[in-house]
Structure formats: structure tokens, C-alpha cells
Amino acid sequence: MDERGGTGLALPAAPLEDAELRALTLEGMAALAAAMLRLGLENPSAPLRKPALATVNAAGGPAVRTVILRSVDLAARRLGLFTDVRSRKVAELRAEPRAELMFYDPACDMQLRLAGRVEIRVGDEAAWASAAPASRRAYLVTAPPGTPSPEPVSGLPADVAGIIPSIERMEEGRANFAYIEFSIAEADIVVLSRAGHRRARIRYEADGEHAEWLVP
Ligand SMILES: Cc1cc2nc3c(=O)[nH]c(=O)nc-3n(C[C@H](O)[C@H](O)[C@H](O)COP(=O)(O)O)c2cc1C
User: Fold this and answer.
1) Which secondary structure element, helix H or strand E, spans residue 4, and what is its range?
2) Ligand 1 centroid vs 169 CA: distance in angstroms?
């Protein structure tokens, strides 16, 4: 089978066929989940780079939005995201730190849902240093994200609109920058195939990993 995902772990380039599907073990499902995260991190144009983050809103209802995967630590089972501390999702996560991330790969028709808990670190030095200049600029937006506007706006101050400002100017946005550290408690992996589907759940608990097959 053709594979993607760079070094170590690999992700198929197309949906699994009959024999490949039948050969899948629970360990294989876990390896596919790891490969999805690795591909998302390594390839900026991969759909896996842009998961959906689900939170619980103030009324107890669902709230979901696209975010960019910024870091992956498979050994620690932690992922990193960047956001604006003034955004609604931060208030939601402060009130209810349990969240879900959903990744989908259209090439191999696999879905990975991660349930976990977040920690929010405002102005995090290491995360800020790892952010590309173009992403740092976003935190100079003057009004909080989601503020109504009478006209179409970028929200950026006039002196930085359309340019990448100096490092010093971007530093002024750091107080608005939040690093979301997502700790994975559970993974739910779905593999779609014409030969039949497969689904597995892995729970990460204090006494180790518990993996089981689920009816898709
Ligand atoms: C492709 C894409 C990538 C995005 N990446 C991020 C991101 O990494 N962090 C973020 O806070 N918002 C990101 N957004 C914007 C969010 O989807 C969302 O509109 C914004 O954060 C406000 O969400 P909230 O009001 O629920 O907090 C992205 C949007 C798109 C379309």
C-alpha cells in the first residue's frame, strides 16, 4: 500500500482494501491514530492539520470550530493549539476544560476523535517563540474575536494590515496569545473501507492503555 506520514509511522494514501482491513490489529489502529497526528503536524497542507475543536458553551450546548494543530507529543499524549485569549473558546474551556478534537483524512477515509482535557497558558514563552511571524500578527487584533463590526474588517491595526510587522511590534500581541495544551484521555478511531469498517477505542488511564474494538 502507498503510505504517507514521513518517518516512522505511515498512513495509507487510499482507503484500506479487503486484506489490509482484515490484517488490522488493535495495535495497528493505534499506529494509524499516531500516523494521522504526525502527518497533520508535518504537512501544513494536510486536512489533518486542521482538526475541529469541540467545547461546551455557557448554555451547556455544543460549540465547534476549526483550529490548527501546532504541536504533538505522542509519548506524553499531548497536543498544542494556539488561540486568542479573548476568544469565546477560551472562556468556554476555562469553565469546562473537557474538550474533543476531531481529525478526518479524506484520502484514506479515517476519522480520529480525541477526548481530553485542556490547560490554557497565556503568553506561553516557548509556544510564542515557535509561532511563525504571520501567526503572531493575528494577536494584534484590537477588538476581541467575534466582536460585531458594521463593515468587513480584518481587525488588525492600520499600521500592520497587509504587512508582517517587526518582531518588537508583534510582541505587543503576546498578552492576547494563549497556548492550549490538550491532554488525550481517549482516542476513538474509525477506518472506512468498502470491505467493511473498523472502529477502536483506546483509553489512557493511570494503570496503562486499554484498547478495544467497537462496532463501527
Ligand atoms: C483553516 C482555519 C484554521 C483556523 N485555525 C485557528 C487556530 O489555530 N486557532 C484559533 O483560535 N482559531 C482558528 N481558526 C478560527 C476558528 O475556527 C474560529 O472561527 C475562531 O477561533 C473563533 O472561535 P470561537 O469564537 O469559538 O472562540 C481557524 C479557522 C480556519 C478556517
Assistant:
1) strand 3-4
2) 23
What's the pLDDT score for residue 5? Answer: 55
Q: Is 145 in the pocket of ligand 1 (CB under 6 A)?
A: yes
Q: Is the CB of 66 under 6 A from ligand 1?
A: yes
Ligand 1 neighbourhood includes 68 CB (under 6 angstroms): yes
Nearest by Cα to 191 from 13, 6, 3, 21: 21
Bridge partners, residue 87, by sequence? none
Q: Is residue 85 part of a domain?
A: yes
For ligand 1, the distance from its centroid to the CA atom of residue 134, given in whole angstroms, is: 15
Over the stretch 7-46, which tens digit does the pLDDT of each residue have?
455 899 999 999 999 999 999 999 999 999 999 999 999 9
Q: Is residue 171 part of a domain?
A: no
CB 189 within 8 A of CB 32: yes
**What are the beta bridge partners of residue 112?**
103, 189
CA distance 119 to 197: 34
pLDDT digits (tens, 9 = 90+) for 103-113: 999 999 999 99
The domain total for the chain is 1
Range of 102's domain? Answer: 3-135+177-214
Ligand 1 mean position, distance from CA 47 (Å): 14
